[in-house]
Write a structure and sequence with these properties.
- The chain is mostly beta strands.
- The protein contains no helices and 10 strands.
- The termini are far apart.
């Protein structure tokens, strides 16, 4: 099983980023996938998930700003993040399953700062 996140970086407040998570080694199309994040000095926070049938869920603070999607042909899950805020600064991980506690990748750093 392998999960490789990418797409992070430094962005100004109000900016956008699109994260990607390329998956391999399991049946991606049948798996729910989750994005989680960990800010400096804080615990792992659940951000969003997407089920195999396309149903999505978001943490309240991300609703209207973040959009999760998936491409089963590419075994990839995405997180489009708009109107980013300094408090969104964190390492973002994708995990297998509907919770933040599943197998995860190495993460990608997102820094929101002017």
């Amino acid at each position: 099983v392998q999960l490789v996140e990418s797409g992070g970086g430094l962005v100004q407040p109000g900016g956008s980023l699109r994260l990607s998570c390329a998956a391999s080694g399991f049946t991606f199309s049948r798996s729910a996938m989750t994005w989680a994040r960990q800010a400096p000095g804080k615990g792992l926070e659940w951000v969003s998930n997407i089920y195999s049938d396309g149903r999505t869920n978001y943490a309240d603070s991300m609703k209207g700003r973040f959009t999760i999607s998936r491409d089963n042909a590419k075994s990839t899950v995405y997180l489009q993040m708009n109107n980013l805020k300094p408090e969104d600064t964190a390492v973002y991980y994708c995990t297998i399953g509907p919770t933040r506690w599943g197998t995860r990748g190495q993460g990608t750093q997102v820094t929101v700062s002017s």
